[in-house]
Design goal:
The protein is α/β, with parallel strands linked by helices. The chain has helices at 10-17, 25-28, 47-59, 82-88, 92-95, 121-134, 143-153, 199-203, 242-253, 278-294; strands at 3-4, 22-23, 36-41, 65-70, 89-90, 100-105, 135-141, 158-172, 186-196, 208-214, 218-224, 229-232. Strands 1, 2, 3, 4, 5, 6, 7, 8, 9, 10, 11 and 12 form a twelve-stranded mixed sheet that branches. Belongs to the MetA family.
């Protein structure tokens, strides 16, 4: 099934080139089924790249999804044109009276700041508070996961001695969870961050559970036991070249920037990187959409926030 996005969004051409079924707004208007409404709060500076990466993951499902792009008003984006933001993005005031089946909160390059020093922290917490009554299920990614698990459950983040960057092996620790249905026992996933959360802090909270983790990179997937909030502390949406682009950027300002681990063949950055995580990344998004959004969200979208909490998984 297709993903429905604005006809002229830059990601549209790239996704169509990859033979991903993108439905035009005109065609979607003539369908009788209700699409899932997903709100994407894009906090990354490279907005168009992140849009494309996440829309690619949302598109490869048997569901019709209508995506709305959300930005913060309290932060001025420097790496994307104001025209793009005005054309394709909405602000929280535009959607605060609406309901959504899903919300995705992306990462952001602000990990070394205290949460309360981030210039849009108050706006972000307002959105997270609003999601309790207006969103059925929320997926938090990387810094968005650290921010979400801190604000919602009090789990702290800690600065690392060295940036965690690379593609790491993980193991599924709760194979009965539908979120990892179809996963291998061990799988690979990208990380890129200067801070982490600790497994013991998550395990100490009875409202949280760990789903997958890595010996090298730490906790990767965690969720609330009521299946309303999901946390991914890596970047499953990353393209093959993303870590390479980040490494080249970091190396310009930090000559001793750490080489992404297990990413380049023989750890040689002159060789093209290999993509070894796309299948599990796709399952992560597809399973979230299928088992925790589509199958449990109310058909009448205005009923979101009034329905019974999902059964523990």
């Amino acid at each position: 099934m297709p993903i429905k996005i604005p006809d002229s969004l830059p990601a549209t051409a790239q996704l169509e080139k990859e033979n991903i079924f993108v439905m035009t707004e005109h065609r979607a208007l003539h369908q009788d089924i209700r699409p899932l409404r997903v709100l994407l709060l894009n906090l990354m500076p490279t907005k168009i790249t992140t849009e494309t990466q996440i829309l690619r993951k949302l598109s490869n499902t048997p569901l019709q999804i209508e995506v709305e792009l959300l930005r913060t008003k309290s932060h001025v984006a420097k790496n994307v044109s104001e025209e793009h933001l005005e054309t394709f993005y909405v602000s929280f005031d535009d959607v605060k009276d609406e309901h959504f089946d899903g919300l995705i909160i992306t990462g952001a390059p602000v990990e070394l700041l205290d949460f309360h020093d981030v210039d849009y922290w108050d706006e972000l917490t307002r959105i997270m508070d609003w999601s309790k009554t207006n969103v059925h299920s929320t997926l938090h990614i990387c810094w968005g996961a650290q921010a979400g698990i801190y604000y919602r459950y009090g789990v702290e983040k800690y600065e690392l001695d060295e940036k965690t960057t690379g593609v790491f092996e993980h193991r599924v620790v709760k194979p009965s969870s539908p979120w990892v249905r179809g996963f291998d026992d061990r799988f690979r996933a990208p990380h890129s961050r200067y801070t982490n959360v600790r497994a013991e802090d998550i395990e100490a909270n009875p409202n949280l559970e760990i789903i997958a983790e890595s010996d090298e990179a730490g906790v990767y997937m965690a969720k609330s036991t009521d299946s309303r909030n999901f946390f991914v502390f890596g970047h499953p949406e990353y393209d093959r070249e993303t870590l390479n682009v980040e490494y080249e950027r970091d190396s310009k300002t930090h000559p001793n920037a750490p080489l992404p681990k297990h990413y380049y063949p023989d750890d040689d950055p002159t060789q093209p990187a290999e993509s070894t995580w796309r299948a599990h990344a796709q399952l992560l998004y597809t399973n979230w959409l299928n088992y925790y959004v589509y199958q449990t969200t109310p058909y009448e979208i205005d009923a979101i926030g009034h329905e019974e909490a999902a059964d523990d998984e």
